[in-house]
């Protein structure tokens, strides 16, 4: 019987340290603020389009920027990409975004309809 | 009786194994089989093209052979064979006991195998796919038979396996390195496997979507590619090549890694310009994603777009050139041993450079209108794929065979094999440059006499026969060399995979090694006592349990594919239920593996 | 085999990354999401390339109604918040909280899915079948793939919740819950682009 073998299906007991507790509280607050902000941004985006007064030339880039901001908040606050030790996840995710952007752009523009 | 029992448990052991070494060997065996199959298809095509107006096979059969040759060689031979080496060798090179996800590793293998079998069953069930390995729409969506359905689903299943394998290698290399094995001390084969895995991660999803769309179009009446109702056929080409060009680098980068190991080992020198090599690998991987439209110059996406992709393509020649020079400088002044493994590595350099040069010619978008879809392209990609990837596979096979199978391949036979293959290869494909420049299109089942290409085609076929003879010599070599037992470190190796006993113990390293320098073993040979230092005291070793579930998951998808192809949806549902059921069991059953005891390890290592 | 010794284990600050398996899962899952990004990009690109190919069928302007999409968006956004709460509770060692907030997430996900199915039915009634036009096919494929992800997420998280209903937080299930919540956030990320690019730019 080796005592150093920890049992991976035993319930974890105890509370986080005071410091961790405070950290979690801070995190929670940040997340609620981001949530409110995201709701706000979403509403703005919908309003921009629904109001029908704002010309598309402005509205489309505007709502796209709003979408990007929201996604960044999801990734960094909700999914904790801002925490330390996330170097590789950041690298791979942003590489994914890079390839994704190229893909979307070509499929939109370079399909032989308009020649560039 | 007891013998039958033992027999059965050996089989069961292989079916359920999650050991990266056994999975590596299974990849090699399955990949080797498909390689032979793809080779057979090639020979049949070359016989058909031996004489003008020949009718050895029908045009329809020729199209099927052509499609299956390309698809098999890329997806079912080259990639799995590389995965075989990556599986077996990468964990050893980084001093790990296993990969990060042993279960998923086995799942990846079985998905690949079932996908490959599904694809090949099309031969017996209404004809193989016949629209080329690129399956361009609308040829594949509107003018082809069930073969394409097998293509779509077979590749979808095996592609899933590839994606899983890619993620597994990435995490393994990041998280499982032994103490001291920093990224910049990793052997080049590990590095290139890492970059290739990243390419898999970002390239395969595009193929997944492409295949999904083609499937929905063919089987469920979707209209993405149907121009009369607003569809567009160029979308398929983009999706295919967004995957397809990175795919060729997925193949070549691990081969580059193999050459780096082999050249440095057999020159008895440290790899010249290690960090430049790493950097070049990364750049190639990165640029590899920005050039795919060079396959589509003649489609008509526009002159500026063509120019951008042409320049980006040519830029890849720069990091590739850096690598070529570094290999040359690695050999410069070294004590070069001309083993079979090294012969392949040395022959690779000029062969691959020729393929690179024709690549640059093809990348010149204006000139491409002349070259495109002729035998010139066929010559180009065979120079890079055979002269690069296949040479790498052969080199790696001769190099790592003692580690993987415990015996050395016969060198005399090996050299015969090498020279025959090299000669046959150049004979086959060198002349194809000229056949193409004289105007013979690729993918045609025959040609008319008197155009000045009769003799060249005949010569090309002769070369193909030579390569076949060479391949048979390799098979013979594998069989007759079995008695040739090898010691643990037959080549006076430099990296960690040569520091462990032969046959490789199940747990790889009795004690996790401590890495002190690049070329860890060589450093200990020259600065220490020749033995790798241990990073931990001898202790019990934790091992994962085997599982039969991967086979069931793959089998379920295999069955579901038949349901989809023949639109018998109860079968589809049963198949998916098997897969999901197996996933469900996997999810709710906790399996914490087992331990190998210290005492048993001591016994095995012969120290107790 | 080592018998399981039931001795007390204290809560680490990141239970999801406390073991090597947990770390591997965490990293592997993130990489998988990186790949999913390209997968969805391919679908988005296809949709954007084909959205004007409506043939004789209805156009997006004929079909899309922002009120329904707004409600769906709010539901999914909120489900993202509930899964965040679940993770905070996990790190606090509050198993009950973890379970409750996760079930809330599942519930909201199911509501979202219900609305989506309703939406598709309305469109089909209006004459936008899957095979009507290239626009129709690419729209259903993109939004349907997202919906398929939601469905898979619901099934997955429910399985975990039922399987571990009494287990407490353990070193084995913490990473599982954690990656499931990452998956859920990712579904929301994709939805942000869908409502912007498909719906807002389509009305
Ligand atoms: C300097 C590097 C390279 C350049 C500039 C280059 C360029 C090109 C170009 C422009 C084409 C399109 C020809 C046409 O269809 O008109 C092409 C085709 C091809 N290349 Fe390369 N290439 C390079 C390296 C490679 C490597 C390393 C591989 C594989 C290991 C490879 C495999 C292929 C394949 C398979 C095709 C044909 C695809 C098909 O149409 O079936 N190339 N290459
Ligand atoms: Cu290419």
Question: Which helices and strands appear, and what pairs or packs with what?
Answer:
The complex is a heterotrimer of chains A (116), B (608) and C (203).
Chain A: E1 12-13, H1 18-50, H2 56-78, H3 87-109
Chain B: H1 2-16, H2 20-48, H3 59-93, H4 102-121, H5 139-142, H6 147-175, H7 188-220, H8 234-267, H9 274-287, H10 303-315, H11 317-331, H12 340-363, H13 365-371, H14 375-405, H15 411-437, H16 454-480, E1 513-514, H17 520-527, E2 533-534, E3 541-543, H18 549-565, H19 569-588, E4 594-596, H20 598-605
Antiparallel strand pairs in B: 1-2, 3-4
Helix pairs in contact in B: 2-3, 2-4, 2-16, 3-4, 3-6, 3-8, 3-14, 4-6, 4-18, 6-7, 6-18, 7-8, 7-9, 8-12, 8-14, 9-11, 12-14, 12-15, 14-15, 15-16, 18-19
Chain C: E1 9-10, H1 20-50, H2 60-63, H3 66-92, H4 95-126, H5 134-163, H6 173-200
Helix pairs in contact in C: 1-5, 1-6, 3-4, 3-6, 4-5, 5-6
The structure holds protoporphyrin IX containing FE and copper (II) ion.
Copper (II) ion is lined by residues 245, 248, 294-295 of chain B.
Short description:
Chain A has 116 residues and is mostly helical.
Largest sheet: number of strands, sense, barrel closure of chain A:
none
End-to-end gap of chain A: 71 Å
* Count of alpha/pi helices of chain B: 20
The helix-strand sequence of chain B is HHHHHHHHHHHHHHHHEHEEHHEH
Count of individual helical segments of chain A:
3
Largest sheet of chain B: 2 strands, antiparallel
Q: Ranges of chain A with pLDDT <50 over ≥5 residues? A: none
DSSP E strands of chain B, number:
4
- What is the rounded Rg of chain A? 22 Å
Shape of chain A: flat
Overall morphology of chain B: globular
Describe the fold and architecture.
The complex is a heterotrimer of chains A (116), B (608) and C (203). Chain A is an all-alpha fold and 116 residues long. In chain A, 68% of the residues lie in helices and 2% in strands. Chain A folds into two domains: 17-83; 85-116. In chain A, helix 1 (18-50) packs antiparallel against helix 2 (56-78). With 608 residues, chain B is mainly alpha-helical. Chain B has a two-stranded antiparallel sheet with strand order 1-2. A two-stranded antiparallel sheet of chain B has the order 3-4. Helix content of chain C is 75%, strand content 1%. Chain C has helices spanning 20-50, 60-63, 66-92, 95-126, 134-163, 173-200; one strand at residues 9-10. In chain C, helix 1 packs antiparallel against helix 5 (134-163) and helix 4 packs antiparallel against helix 5 (134-163). Chains in contact: A-B, A-C, B-C. Strand 1 (12-13) of chain A pairs parallel with strand 1 of chain C. Bound molecules: protoporphyrin IX containing FE and copper (II) ion. Protoporphyrin IX containing FE is lined by residues 134, 248, 251-252, 294-295, 313, 316-317, 320, 356, 359-360, 362-363, 368, 371-372, 377, 380-381, 384-385, 388-389 of chain B.
């Amino acid at each position: 019987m080796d005592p150093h073998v920890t049992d991976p299906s035993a319930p974890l007991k105890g509370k986080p340290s005071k410091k961790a507790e405070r950290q979690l509280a801070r995190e929670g607050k940040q997340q609620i603020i981001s949530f409110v902000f995201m709701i706000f941004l979403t509403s703005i985006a919908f309003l921009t389009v629904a109001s029908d007064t704002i010309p598309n030339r402005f509205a489309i880039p505007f709502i796209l920027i709003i979408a990007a901001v929201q996604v960044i908040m999801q990734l960094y606050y909700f999914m904790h990409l801002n925490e330390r030790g996330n170097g590789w996840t950041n690298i791979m995710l942003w590489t994914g975004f890079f390839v994704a952007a190229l893909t979307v752009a070509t499929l939109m523009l370079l399909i032989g309809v308009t020649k560039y | 009786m007891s013998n039958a029992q033992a027999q059965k448990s050996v089989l069961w052991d292989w079916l359920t194994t999650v050991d990266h070494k056994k999975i590596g060997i299974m990849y090699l065996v399955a990949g080797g089989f498909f390689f032979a199959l793809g080779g057979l298809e090639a020979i049949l095509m070359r016989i058909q093209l031996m004489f003008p107006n020949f009718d050895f096979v029908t045009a329809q059969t020729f199209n099927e052979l052509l499609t299956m040759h390309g698809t098999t060689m890329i997806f079912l031979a080259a990639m799995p064979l590389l995965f075989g080496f990556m599986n077996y060798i990468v964990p050893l090179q980084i001093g790990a006991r296993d990969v990060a996800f042993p279960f998923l590793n086995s799942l990846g293998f079985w998905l690949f195998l079932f996908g490959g079998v599904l694809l090949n069953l099309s031969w017996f069930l209404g004809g193989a796919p016949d629209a080329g390995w690129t399956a361009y729409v609308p040829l594949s969506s509107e003018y082809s038979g069930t073969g394409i359905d097998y293509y779509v689903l077979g590749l979808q299943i095996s592609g899933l396996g590839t994606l899983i394998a890619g993620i597994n290698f990435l995490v393994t290399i990041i998280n499982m390195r032994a103490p001291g094995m920093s990224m910049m001390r990793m052997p080049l084969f590990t590095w290139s496997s890492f970059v290739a895995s990243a390419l898999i991660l970002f390239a395969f999803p595009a193929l997944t979507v492409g295949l999904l769309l083609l499937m929905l179009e063919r089987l469920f009446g979707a209209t993405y590619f149907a121009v009369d109702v607003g569809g567009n056929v160029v979308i398929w080409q983009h999706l295919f090549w967004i995957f397809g060009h990175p795919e060729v680098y997925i193949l070549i980068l691990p081969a580059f890694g193999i050459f780096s190991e082999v050249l440095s080992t057999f020159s008895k020198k440290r790899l010249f310009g290690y960090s430049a090599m790493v950097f070049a690998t990364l750049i190639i991987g990165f640029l590899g994603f920005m050039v795919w439209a060079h396959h589509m110059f003649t489609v008509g996406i526009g002159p500026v777009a063509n120019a951008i992709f042409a320049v980006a393509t040519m830029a890849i020649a720069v990091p590739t050139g850096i690598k070529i020079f570094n290999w040359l400088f690695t050999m410069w002044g070294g004590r070069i041993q001309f083993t079979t493994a090294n012969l392949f590595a040395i022959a690779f350099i000029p062969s691959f450079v020729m393929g690179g040069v024709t690549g640059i010619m093809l990348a010149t978008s204006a000139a491409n209108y002349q070259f495109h879809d002729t035998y010139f392209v066929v010559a180009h990609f065979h120079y890079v794929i055979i002269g690069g990837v296949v040479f790498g596979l052969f080199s790696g096979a001769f190099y790592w065979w003692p580690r993987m199978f415990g015996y050395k391949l016969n060198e005399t036979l090996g050299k015969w094999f090498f020279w025959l293959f090299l000669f046959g290869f150049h004979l086959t494909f060198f002349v194809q440059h000229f056949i193409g420049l004289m105007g013979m299109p690729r993918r045609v089942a025959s040609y008319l006499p008197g155009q000045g290409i009769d003799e060249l085609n005949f010569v090309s076929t002769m070369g193909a026969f030579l390569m076949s003879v060479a391949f048979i010599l390799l098979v013979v070599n594998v069989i007759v060399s079995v008695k040739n037992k090898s010691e643990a470190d037959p080549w006076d190796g430099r990296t960690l995979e040569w520091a462990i006993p032969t046959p490789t113990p199940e747990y790889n390293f009795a004690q996790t090694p401590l890495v002190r320098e690049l070329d860890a073993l060589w450093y200990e040979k020259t600065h220490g006592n020749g033995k790798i230092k241990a990073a931990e005291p001898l202790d019990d070793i934790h091992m994962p349990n085997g599982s039969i579930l991967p086979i069931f998951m793959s089998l379920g998808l295999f069955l579901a594919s038949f349901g989809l192809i023949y639109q018998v949806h109860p079968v589809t549902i049963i198949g998916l239920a098997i897969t999901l059921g197996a996933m469900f069991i996997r999810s709710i059953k906790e399996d914490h593996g087992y331990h190998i005891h210290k005492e048993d390890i001591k016994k095995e290592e012969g120290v107790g | 085999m080592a018998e399981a010794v039931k001795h007390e284990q204290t809560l680490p600050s990141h239970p999801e990354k406390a073991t090597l398996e947990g770390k591997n899962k965490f990293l592997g899952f993130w990489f998988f999401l990186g790949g999913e990004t390209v997968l969805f990009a391919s679908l988005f690109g296809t949709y954007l390339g084909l959205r004007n190919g409506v043939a004789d069928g209805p156009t997006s302007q004929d079909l899309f109604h922002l009120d329904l999409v707004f409600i769906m968006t709010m539901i999914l956004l909120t489900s993202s918040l509930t899964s965040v709460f679940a993770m905070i509770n996990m790190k606090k060692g509050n198993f009950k909280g973890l379970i409750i907030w996760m079930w809330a997430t599942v519930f909201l996900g199911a509501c979202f899915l219900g609305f989506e199915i309703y939406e598709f039915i309305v469109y089909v009634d209006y004459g936008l079948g899957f095979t009507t036009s290239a626009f129709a096919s690419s729209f259903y494929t993109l939004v349907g793939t997202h919906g398929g992800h939601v469905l898979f997420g619901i099934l997955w998280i429910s399985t975990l919740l039922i399987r571990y209903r009494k287990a407490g937080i353990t070193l084995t299930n913490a990473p599982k819950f954690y990656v499931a919540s990452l998956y859920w956030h990712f579904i929301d990320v994709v939805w942000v682009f869908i409502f912007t690019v498909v719906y807002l730019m389509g009305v």
